Amino acid sequence: MRYARVLLPSRSRTRESSGPEVLRLLLREKPNARRKGHSLIELVAAMASSAVLLVGLGSVILIASRGSDLTGPTSDTIRASELAHELMDEIRYAIFITDRSANMIQFAVADRDADGEPEVIRYEWSGTPGDPLTRTYNHGTADTVAEDVDDFTLTYNIREKAEEFEGLVESSEALLKQYTGSDYLRGWVITPNNWLGQYFHPDDFSPALPSDATSWKVTKVEFVARIESAAIAEATVQLRPATGDCKPTSTVLAEVPMYESALSSSYTWETFTFANAPMLSPNAGICLVIKRISGSSAGRIRYDDYGGIGRVWTYNSGASWSISSADDSMQYKVYGKYKQPGDTQTVTRRYLTGVDLSMQIGDSGYSKVNTGTNLLNTPELLSAYWKVDFDADPTTTDADFDGSSDWTEETGTFNPSSLVGGVWQADQSDGVALSTLPDNDFTELTTVDIKCRNTSVGGLGANFWMHFDRTGGDYGEVYTSVALQTDGTQTARIYSGDGTNDALLLDVPDLSSDFIHIRLVIVPDTDLVAVWVNQVFRGTFDYFRFNNHSKRYFIAQPSGSDAEFDYISVRVSDSS
Q: What is the CATH topology of the domain spanning 181-330?
């Protein structure tokens, strides 16, 4: 090949050019010259660039194909991210939270397998670094979804919603009732067999309780007593509910000791304070009882044999009681407090709005993943839940998704044929009473909603009751009656009572023959129950405490006549 001789300006001398410099000059186009295809040089350069690109793409494909074989923080981070995404995607659609903690969550989501039932999912980690993370589906066998988990911490975003209703205000202590007459004074010696007592009723209080008083309680009593003998002896001063004939029952509402050694040798007024006496109905009478505990005699109590009324006594250690039919009374004073509408009561319900997750697989801090999600349904946080709408046999329902039935027969055997159009047609003759499972002390805010009606006249009609706020052997109890009247209307009544000592809290007459919606909000912190009937607020009341059985459930049944139940819901709030 012959090289072109080109004059280059370089220090004013001519030199010969070759190699790349010549190529650049040869490739220079003339003005308006027409290109025909690519030059050989361009093709060579393009092929070289393509070869470099293909080598790079091959490396990427090789790395990607081996991604599943990566170990160490990178692989741990990828796996943690995948699991966190899967969990957040599932919990986003939760309709009910059945259990939760920092290292575990169990929740229900809508039906996924077309069996008509929601699915229950549980993620759990022991809290010990190195232990696995497990996932359980519909109460089956726990599957390990990640080994060597160093952290799995859930935090919960909670929205609180306040509900307000009219509450009660308590009065200051006042003298409620007294008898200090001295027409014919005598003394009663407290012995193992011979006890003394005094009956009194709010109808006789002076001044009278306010007309809107919802309850009252004894704070202290005074009576006249003295030592009977020098022997060391003890008695107890008790408050007991009264029977219909004004005599003491065997139930003790409150008591304080009386030591004979603390009495004077002459008659004096003695004071006994009750710090925790329960609230009582304005329609309920009560008996003061002085009972011997030890010693042959435990003091002498003064009474007026020809003045006042209401003295009671026993000669057989309380097996039977007598009450005077004429003037006869202890010398006594009763102090107490009462409640009436006034203060606003506020209760708080809590709803889960979101969940945050910190997760780490392996011991490298670089593999930790933090994420979170909002919940679409914001379920209420409940510690216990029962619901039945009578579309199916209630003894097979599982509204709280714990894997076991929520209801059982307290009495009788439930017949599914009694379910008609989503209504339990509860005939008295069937003898069926439905009760909740498992047992519960109902010590948190508890809300009851029930729709029922009485379809024949007699007894309590559509009846439900429950035992709640159990502390040791003490508990509160309310029961409700929806009773059909002879004129075709229904009357709803709310009682606080144990079947023997009952106090009527509320009477709502002239209701229609249709289903009646009753809502109770039970507030154990303040011993209150608020009542709505057919969406109308009817008032707040003290419930009264008892201690004569160990029942820990809710019961619904027909009582004395036929009834129908359309819906029952019992919710216990979770304050944790």
A: Jelly Rolls (2.60.120)
